[in-house]
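Q: What structure does this chain adopt?
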Amino acid sequence: MKKYNLITPEGTKDFLFEECLVRRKVENRLHGIFRSKGYSELITPSLEFFDVFQTESTHYPPERLYKLTDSKGRLLVMRPDSTTPIARVVATRLRDAALPLRLYYNQTVYRFEPALKGRSDEIMQMGIELLGTSSYMADVEMVTTAIDVLAACSDGSFSLELGDAGVFKELMRELNATPEERENIRYLIETKNYPALNDVLDTMGDSKIAAALKKLPALFGGEEVFDKASQLYSSQRIDEILTDLKKLYQDISKVIGTGRLTVDLGMVNNADYYTGVIIKGYLEGYGEEVLSGGRYNKLLADFGYDIPATGFAVNVDAVSNIVRQNGEIPVPSADAVIYAEQGYEMKAVSVAEQLRKKGMVVEYGFFDQLELVREYARERNIGKIVIVDEEVTEVE
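A:
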């Protein structure tokens, strides 16, 4: 007996009519932004070898990956993110391309999400990757492009967070921790689980590094965060990171003000390939970030091509839900419906094509009575009926 032929797998859904229309509108907006800044589109396979996501910089937990095998028994996965496959492409097929490279994508990613989180396992993402430069201006371009995306998908009710993965990485480099302990500490900082974080760090001795890590999740807010951080722990590298991030914060605040901009030094993404500036973008009406990314200067070296890079991804499905809730995009209806008297069907086809060439959306009325066509038009909010017989008559 079939049990699952009428439902979709957990973490997936069907998209109907208005949902498809809104998603396409959002995608078109982002396509326009990315193309206007010189980015070229790239598409990678939905299927990748498991090894692509098990490099030194990128290690996805196997339990979060959709896995299958090919005809030779080799382990494959459904693409869980787009940045890593693009790094593979650039390191192999685009190795001789002039730098910097500006690439963008529009494709689905697949990964198991915790059942109680209410997140989708299948997510449509659009994003950009800027490869081959570590300049400050590249970070500015990335952040200002993120602002353009958030502004284009909202009425101005958005916010942006800035952080830097380097602070956490530098502290962890000086802390004597196993890879498992390191990942646990990262997760507890990311989720701002203060009690559990304190318990773990208490077992590692009463050091300034452990004390700084305990305070890291609380280091978020405005420009005052930089002074608090500098008092908490100081080293040449961390001081440099904070100075650079403070400059970026001040420059970006000139673009959107401080009311929509925060700095969060406890922002440590689960994608371990980030090495520098991290950004997250939020829209009113959605509790999690709809945009995230940052600098990843070591990832391409895992594929044999050591160049710096930065980028971000947009959760198109989340943005589409917000746009739809705000009622920005009306449900479409046809401009006209054609009723053909018997024997005039092909004439109706010709009339319909003439109207479509004028930019109208035209449907055929599949009824043998005019009154039924009128009822259909009323139900679908179609304002014009075109009657085709010896004459062509338009009825409003």
